[in-house]
Amino acid sequence: MTSLPDCLECIKTRRVTRYFSEEAVPREAFVKILEAGRWAPSGGNRRLHRFIAIQDREIIELIRAVSPGMLGYPSALAVICIDWAKAGSLGCKPHHHGAYIDVGTAAENMLLAGHALGLGTGPVTSFSASAVSTILRLPDWLTPEMMVCIGYPAGTQPFGRSLPAKLTRLEDLISWEQFGSASVGGSLGR
Amino acid sequence: MLLSEDEVLELAAFLVTAARCLVDEPVDYGPMRLLSGAERLCTYAAPRIEDAQTRALFEHLAQHIPPRLGRRNGDPDGYLRFMDDSCRRIATELLRRAGRGR
Fold first, then answer.
1. Can you give the residue range of the structural domain that contains B39?
2. In what order do the strands lie in the sheet with A120-124?
3. Residues A73-110: pLDDT tens digits?
């Protein structure tokens, strides 16, 4: 079992992989990644998601053709969908924003699980939802929201690592106790 | 033929789906997607182009667009210079092929 320090190290060392080798992802590793998505936190424990798991190269190529954000050819692909029929049956309004947040938690768990298993992973949101739904034969109550590309990283990543112009520091993100406070350690600088 | 029917279909799919996605995406994704489309076109076509100089231009673009896209945020000035340089290279090649090169 992964210890807490290993978990934090996994979080810190994960990077997005855009280009993959042709080596197939073992089915058991793929299932572990999907299982990690299953264990992600979900608002109200409603579990509004479905995962479409794809390892068929031809289907992946078809999906890539309608996904401008997918640069390489992953050997496995998890499409995270929202089950709006279930959401409605549980009293959620259309476009219930918690469902979209839960897409993110599931995706992050999958990305981290892939990294922990020694695989490269990368999220994709730039795709045509209508085209992907057509290719995957999704019913109209199931919408594709995010994809997680999975595979062994290619020897070179032609896209490189996308770096921001200025690295974000922890103190750039945090206000302690109330917005705008720059004090560190929980006090308001009194 | 420079492109196969499958390659043409894939490029058309990329352009149309990118157009749809861009409606909802940050504005800087626009140039990125256009360059990605150009890179795909150059990658497909370069091996079948007979003219050596045109082929070299396509190979140059196919090779240099991806790393430039990866550094677009970290080096925005270099990204712009790359696009300007690419435009100059293309214009120079257009002139040469029109018989108006130096």
1. 5-97
2. A49-54, A76-83, A142-151, A120-124
3. 999 999 999 999 999 999 999 889 999 999 999 999 99
Given B29, B33, B71, which is nearest A160 (Cβ)? Answer: B71
List pLDDT tens digits, range B63-76. Answer: 999 989 988 888 89
Q: Taking CB atoms and an 8 Å cutoff, what residues of chain B touch A164?
A: 73-74
Contact A124, A106 (CB under 8 A): no
Nearest to B36 among A68, A160, A162 (CB): A68
Report all structural domains of chain A as residue ranges with CATH numbers, in order of start.
Answer: 4-160 (3.40.109.10)
In a domain, B60, yes or no: yes
SS3 A123: strand
Give the helix/strand (H/E) hosting B87.
helix B76-97
Angstroms from A142 CA to nearest CA on chain B: 19
**ipTM of this predicted complex?**
0.84
Mean pLDDT of A39-51: 95
Could you tell me if A118 and A151 are in contact, meaning their C-beta atoms sit under 8 angstroms apart?
no
A80: Cα within 13 Å, side-chain hemisphere: 31
Q: pLDDT confidence of A12, banded at 50, 70, 90?
A: very high
